[in-house]
């Protein structure tokens, strides 16, 4: 090499090194956002009824995380529960490159022991409306949840206008503990959790303390924690309302009296705008809607959340849209909207179908898939226990996290027999009462070839009760999927696959499967890790309604020691 | 050495070897007793009120362990709680050579995670009446307890006669969960657990379902689980009744209507017999009493347990002494005995003093001690929290078990500063309301020189309420101690030490410290390990009323891997 070339090379390498070390033309400066959270019990009265809740820093919902695209979130989570472990899932964050930070006990990490501090660290790589919540047993129901909002960076703008940005989380609320519910669900005879005692809007609801059998010492109708949530709006202004649902059970219809809502975002993706009077929202979903305060400004308006798809006697959840300068505690002069009929499926299906990717922001799906997994969702009795099954296999969570088991070749940590891509599908009558008692339980996983395209057809069916089929919101960890289509009845590969929307399907991480219907989705198995895919109804997943996908686990880097310490990985923690 | 002597030596060594290898003249054949236990939730109605209890194999009290001296107990304990860990202590078993099997979370082991199976294995080296119970947080109160009875071997006999052997455990019962109670105790403002809702005799009590505010759905006066416990006796026969108390809070007086009881055993040691109408029993104690069915055989008799030492409104616990062939469910025709006045301390102190070692079975105590630790028990406010303190230091449980920390030299796992052997004692006024807010918390341990004799003077005092001092039953793990004496008022080393009973003191593992009084005990620090010593009132220990003793930890063999996996020992588990 001559001297000139040598010098050029050195200069080049120096520049390269500088770029690598100092960051190349930093378009945005990614921040690190640190949070110190203490998970602890508190007596809470979110619906006027006192209950031991699991809180973060004393709050339920927990503190909201607000970040910008590219930021690194660091949550130092200290478990101050006395005898109980915990794990927190960052719902909607794909955890690209950090599959061990997904927070799913049994799948991506060991539970966090009392007195331990676990550090969650991940990048929020995409704007949008997300959630977080416990992902261990049924702890989410004890109040351990909150919102995670990722904003565009300064100078970037959304494809729609609004003046202010507000978040609310919808939830349903039980008075008994998640332990009591878990116990009932896993008992013979089966004890169903029943309908929730109330619907919470941003952690506030109203249980009627005069309900017969209510201990007076536990219920206080004027408890400040159950004063209705109010959003104050300035007349004429437009609000982006980020609505997430983390209900344990309930499908909801949300509406704001006298106001239309324009849907613009779903699960972090821009939606081709459409306007609704009421928004159907299923557990695990998030939406952004635009609402303009364009009504009579001399009064307040009800916001209402009603249970649909189940014939529930739970009172609608109510909050107040407060027109400034009216007093935020002033009840609207009108009767709250009654909401749609619980059993009218048509508008729900229509709204699901109306959600398309926004023009200019379409991520075109692969036109063909490499593998199709048909998942027949059924309710079964397995050995006397009431369970939910996928293709007649009811999911059991192992206690050696799959991610660790795969990386460390712990083959006896769970069932290695492959699961079926479709079972008994052609002959199964989805309209008949499920009578098959021969389902089995398994903790086997689906192994997906890395970088392939996978279709999942979620097929609903009649439950074990006559003329009954439920709504199941399925949530996929680590990915967004394209929603290719919905249908009523049994999926017909020949006919229905031809009707898939391959032009502008929305991408989501949670999607509803409507009663007696099917939902088709497609995703790329391009995120090395192990990912849960399950019905987001807390009791349904607990009863086996889920699966686990492994993809490209050989590409996953060294697992952090902090996720170790349980099951077959008990000895894997290295300080 | 001449040939003859050589041959003799070889013969001698051969015989010695044979004896060592094959066991020398096996007087008894020690058995291995295996138990498979599943710790799980169950809805239980022990006092007619439904509560989520923690059970063993569905039972609370759990299965009784009955073994013979020298047997090895193996309990394979599977944790089937959903999100909660567990640990079980074998109360009264000294764990000589197996200090890691004591089952005390934070002291001798890491908690057992959900889905994990932990194998407890230890030898019961001494006959007597023992107990087991959860030793993690306040889980004992959720129902996780039972009895452990060690019998003499065949051919051996007790120094007293009886025809039948029966066990009962006394307990008190709360309707709220241990989590709710723990939360209240560790809150500002402090929420006291209050008096128990009922007293259970062998897991059965009776809460009055008509108590105002009782949800009818939860209380069923005719629930079979709350039918009174009955012991059937044959007229003329003598019964050994083994009575243990595992109350969360209550000191009890137990009596059997119309029957005297002859006390013959306490905490595994023979008592010089004495006869009582009512037995005072404190949490953590066990007694054997002999009762002869010598009353009118045409009827049944009440057994009654009444709270003493606290002005409680809890109804006495009742059970039935059933004279065969009367129906065991037939209520006695009489009013149950009212029991002694709750605040009459004199008979309690007298009964404590009456318990002496049985002639012929006296273990003479060392006549002098090497160290005296005076432990002033006070109630304090520490940083706004209500706590109990020993010498102004309130105990905090660390979450790296001491035993592991000492063996592995994890010096930062807990406070290394030595604790005081007596603090401010001469000037402290035990009769005045405690006003000192300057107590501190610590998790430091007392280090005892191995094979030394240690005296502990437990000094009671006024609480933070005027004219109030409580009864504290202190329990020592890993040892029995000699009870050298009790006194009223402040301990006076010059005067009171001279009155110590060094002739026939009883050995016990749990002893009461009476209101405004002191109790002196002596033990040999001869059991290598780390041992908790604490008030057996569940809430008091939780609030800091305990210490930890380390002795001869350098002599402890290699710790089993199964106790590892938490705190600083998270990575110490080796499969």
UniProtKB/TrEMBL annotation, chains A, B:
Q: Which GO terms describe its molecular function?
A: copper ion binding; L-ascorbate oxidase activity
Which InterPro entries did the record assign? Cu-oxidase-like_N (IPR011707), Cu-oxidase_2nd (IPR001117), Cu-oxidase_C (IPR011706), Cu-oxidase_fam (IPR045087), Cu_oxidase_CS (IPR033138), Cu_oxidase_Cu_BS (IPR002355), CuRO_3_AAO (IPR034267), L-ascorbate_oxidase_pln (IPR017760)
Keyword line: Copper, Disulfide bond, Glycoprotein, Metal-binding, Oxidoreductase, Repeat, Secreted, Signal
Signal sequence bounds: 1-24
- Report domain Plastocyanin-like positions: 39-150, 167-325, 431-552
Record's PROSITE patterns? Answer: MULTICOPPER_OXIDASE1 (PS00079), MULTICOPPER_OXIDASE2 (PS00080)
Quote the subcellular location field of this record.
Secreted
Region annotated Disordered, chain positions: 325-346
Q: What is its EC number?
A: 1.10.3.3
Catalysed conversion reaction? 4 L-ascorbate + O2 = 4 monodehydro-L-ascorbate radical + 2 H2O
Subunit comment for this entry?
Dimer.
Report what the protein is called. L-ascorbate oxidase
Say which species the protein is native to: Salvia splendens
């Amino acid at each position: 090499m001559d001297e000139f070339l040598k010098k050029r090379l050195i200069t080049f390498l120096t520049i390269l090194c500088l770029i690598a070390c100092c960051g190349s033309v930093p378009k945005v400066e990614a921040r690190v956002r640190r949070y110190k959270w203490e998970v602890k019990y508190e007596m809470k009265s979110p619906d006027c009824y006192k209950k031991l809740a699991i809180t973060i820093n004393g709050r339920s919902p927990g503190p909201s995380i607000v970040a910008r695209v590219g930021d690194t979130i660091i949550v130092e989570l200290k478990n101050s529960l006395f005898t109980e472990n915990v794990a927190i899932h960052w719902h909607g964050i794909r955890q690209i490159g950090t599959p061990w930070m997904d927070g799913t006990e049994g799948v991506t990490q060991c539970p966090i022991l009392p007195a331990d501090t676990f550090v969650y660290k991940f990048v929020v790589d995409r704007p949008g409306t997300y959630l977080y919540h416990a992902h261990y047993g049924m702890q989410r129901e004890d109040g351990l949840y909150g919102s995670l909002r990722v904003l565009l960076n300064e100078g970037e703008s959304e494809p729609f206008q609004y003046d202010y940005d507000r978040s609310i989380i919808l939830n349903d609320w039980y008075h008994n503990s998640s332990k009591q519910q878990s116990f009932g669900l896993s008992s013979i005879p089966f004890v169903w959790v029943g309908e929730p005692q109330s619907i919470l809007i941003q952690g506030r609801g109203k249980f009627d303390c005069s309900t017969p059998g209510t201990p007076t010492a536990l219920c206080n109708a004027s408890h400040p924690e159950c004063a209705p949530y109010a959003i104050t709006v300035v007349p004429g202004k437009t609000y982006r309302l980020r609505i997430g649902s983390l209900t344990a059970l309930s499908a909801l219809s949300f509406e704001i009296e006298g106001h239309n809502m324009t849907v613009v975002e779903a699960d972090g993706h821009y939606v081709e705008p459409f306007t609704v009077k009421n928004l159907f929202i299923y557990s695990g979903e998030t939406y952004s809607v635009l609402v303009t305060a364009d009504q009579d400004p001399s009064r307040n308006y009800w916001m209402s959340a009603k249970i649909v798809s189940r014939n529930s006697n739970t009172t609608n959840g109510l909050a107040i849209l407060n027109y400034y300068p009216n007093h935020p505690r002033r009840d609207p002069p009108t009767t709250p909207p009654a909401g749609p009929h619980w059993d009218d499926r048509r508008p729900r299906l229509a709204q699901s179908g109306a959600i398309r990717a926004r023009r200019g922001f379409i991520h075109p799906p692969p036109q063909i898939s490499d593998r199709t997994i048909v998942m027949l969702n059924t309710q079964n009795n397995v050995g006397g226990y009431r369970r939910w099954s996928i293709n007649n296999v009811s999911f059991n969570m192992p206690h050696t996290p799959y991610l660790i088991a795969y990386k460390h070749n712990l083959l006896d940590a769970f069932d290695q027999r492959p699961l079926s891509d479709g079972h008994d599908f052609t002959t199964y009558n989805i309209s008949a009462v499920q009578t098959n008692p021969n389902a089995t339980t398994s903790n086997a996983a689906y192994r997906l070839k890395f970088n392939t395209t996978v279709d999942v057809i979620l097929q609903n069916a009649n439950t074990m009760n006559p003329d009954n089929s439920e709504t199941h919101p399925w949530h996929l960890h680590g990915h967004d999927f394209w929603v290719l289509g919905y249908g009523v009845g049994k999926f017909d590969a020949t006919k229905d696959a031809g009707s898939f929307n391959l032009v502008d399907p929305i991408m989501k991480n949670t999607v509803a499967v409507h009663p007696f219907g099917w939902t088709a989705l497609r995703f790329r198995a391009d995120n090395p890790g192990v990912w849960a895919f399950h019905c987001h109804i807390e009791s349904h997943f607990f009863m086996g309604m889920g699966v686990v996908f492994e993809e490209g686990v050989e590409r996953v880097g060294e697992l952090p020691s902090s996720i170790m310490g349980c099951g077959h990985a008990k000895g894997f923690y290295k300080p």
